[in-house]
Amino acid sequence: MTALLEVRNLSKQFTSAGGPFRKARAMHAVNDVSFDLPKGRVIGVVGESGCGKSTLARLILRLIEPSAGTLRFDGQDLRAKSPGEMRRLRARMQMVFQDPYSAIDPRYTIARAVLEPFKVQGQKPTQLPAEEVAALLSMVGLSPGLASSYPHQLSGGQKQRVGIARALALRPSLLVLDEPTASLDVSVQAQIISLLQQLRDELGLTFLFISHDLRLVRYFCDEILVMYLGRVVEALPDTDAAARHPYTATLRESTFAVDPKQRRVITPLEGEVPSPFDLPPGCAFADRCRHARAICRTDTPALVAHDGHAVACHNPL
Known about the structure:
This protein is of the alpha/beta class and 317 residues long. The chain is built from nine helices and twelve strands.
């Protein structure tokens, strides 16, 4: 398959401010991440809070600048683009944010919010503004009659649909979905996921779907990247692939089974998550891993692929 997005050795470090009594320190938010996202596919990125998922999303759109690595979108080197070129290219790469309550300006009507991308890009809608708004709202399952409403008059699920409509206004190829269902009720989550599936089929979209919910990622995505403290520790080629990294296995054990008759023995993770300011040598997961050996605390495991299934572990399951 042709890769729409190519990510190679992408890294981002943030430096804390120093002072008279403390030194500036580097925080490793994203560390040497590589993957390809083929056209029309959905790749899920999953991991605990603070593992670097949202930072990765912002790096891909160059909302923040990488410290190292290569980004290519549809064959174009994103890091070589000027700010103006990058702004124009973002018409084809849009983001849906986690919190629908803060993603829309509360002073804007829904019509103005949906038309905002055209103003940012200096473009005119392909049809009359009112017709464009009606078409976009209908595309995401909302009544065109909501165009004159304000965000506070909508539910969380409706606001997230407005966010999706705004992201689709310029007819992008890639949507980066940063935990788009995290703040919604379970029933509303299912509706949003169903909508995204429908839009993918109808518009031929490509998704990078970020979530902390492995159950949801396994349902919605074609492939899965598992992140821990800024690194990809496992890349599953499909959602049915058996977990080979102990961290992935623990995430799976912690998800609810669909069948209430199934019982699971959940073994909680022990130990503390290392500080991203002071990463330990070797595998960052070693102190919490039941399968850790001496080498795990001294040598950082490389992400090695076997039959398309990559795992960064000295002692894979």
